[in-house]
Amino acid sequence: MKLPTYQEAKTRNPIAYQKEQYKLPRSLASKYAGRTYYLKTYGCQMNEHDSENIKAILEEMGFQEANDYKTADLILLNTCSIRENAHNKAFGMLGRIKHLKESKKDILVGLCGCMAQEESVVNKILSDYPWINFVFGTHNIHHLPEVLEESIKKQQLEIEVFSREGNLIEGMPAHRASNYKAYVNIIYGCDKFCTYCIVPYTRGKQRSRKKEDILQEVRQLVKDGYQEVTLLGQNVNAYGKDLKDGYGLSQLLEDVAKTHIPRIRFVTSHPWDFTDEMIDVIAKYPNIMPSIHLPVQSGSNRILRLMGRRYTKEEYLNLFHKLKQKVPNCTISTDIIVGFPGETKEEFQETIQLAKQCQFDNAFTFIFSKRKGTPAEKLDDPISLKEKQERLQQLNEVVNHYFLKSNQSLIGKIVPVLVEGKSPKKKNQLFGYTDTNKLINFVGDERLIGKIVDVEVTDAKTWSLDGTYHE
Ligand code: 5AD
Ligand code: SF4
Fold first, then answer.
1. pLDDT of 169-205, one tens digit each?
2. pTM of the predicted model, to two decimals?
3. Is residue 211 in contact with ligand 1, taking CB distance under 6 Å?
4. Ligand 2 midpoint to CA 447 (Å)
5. Dihedrals φ, ψ of 408, to 5°?
6. Which ligand 1 atom is at minimum distance from the Cα of 197?
């Protein structure tokens, strides 16, 4: 297994679209009936959805889900590489599992996800964690049954990690976390190569699913009573570019909207690929939710250039205002990185200014984390961690103020809510999300779960709303 270097990865092989159908070998169906698994997922929605596939594959093999890793026969970590702390969490968990395995020698332990795609991580596992039973990469999920079998047969660490993406796999089963909301992959990988980001290495080249496969999956979800789909990709706006048949995200959104699924969301959008046609389609169809995640990363043009983001602050603002103007009641959330190598105090203040100008409805804020093999790893980074932490705190104070302001603007309004379940925190209350993706708690009958209902907003906090349901 060799991870491509930055240059090698960037010169991506022009592989043709090749579909492969997942199928569990018959000899493995229900082979492990009576055994249990525990799957821990780190990271983004892509990983969450991969875990839905992994769970279903394990269940086809007969495993049943355990609630606690300490009681499971198989423990699997689906890992994330995006920042150092994601690595630390997974290695911390491996430490606890090692302890457990000392007294329960027969348990099987596996590691998959983005960390498995990192050569340095796999080397560390070989040298420091040889007691792990198997490792498989993000392009090898469909081979989980075979990898697991091999590791049991050989009684040694089995590793299957393709350094290059292979075929596009269709037909994997999914044990979905919700009966009402579903993730649907539309594009895998990323070709943007932002200089700080490890995703183009761990997830590989941009590969779009065929529209027929996506639409068939959505139609089935409609039949199964799902109320919402989230179309997934590292950069959904690039959907279709690799298929070169002129069919892109705007056409796909329109076709998905015509399936009459009540709610459509999509993440994540890169501003560079966001076209006017997409905005028009979002504005036209009421079942495309007026809520866009549009990462800006920085408010400084010099830093944006160093990040390789391909847009200026002015171009971002232009798109931002176009969305606000054309899509009624549109909320916009973002991602921001502080402390990119060499970011000056003034450049950081430009990010603060941008946050004040945009008044984002939600923002995920991060301190820059050096990732192995990325171009930003080599940049001089003289700013201290303490200074970066202070910048993050200052930014958080600004963005939090606007989350509250945005929530307060809804007090007294009636909003449509997809009711997801009983509130885990508030006794006798239900929770759900508004069309604009805001969490709301309210008193209501359990029979409302799974339905889209009108709720009056009565109070607003920074992270959630309170409401009253009127029959
Ligand atoms: N350091 C900090 N944040 C990062 N992100 C991606 N890579 C890094 C990194 N090396 C953030 C970006 C991206 C989000 C998913 O994670 O803001 O949009
Ligand atoms: Fe990473 Fe997103 Fe940039 Fe792709 S577009 S390289 S996933 S930050």
1. 999 999 999 999 999 999 999 999 999 999 999 999 9
2. 0.95
3. no
4. 41
5. -65, -30
6. 7
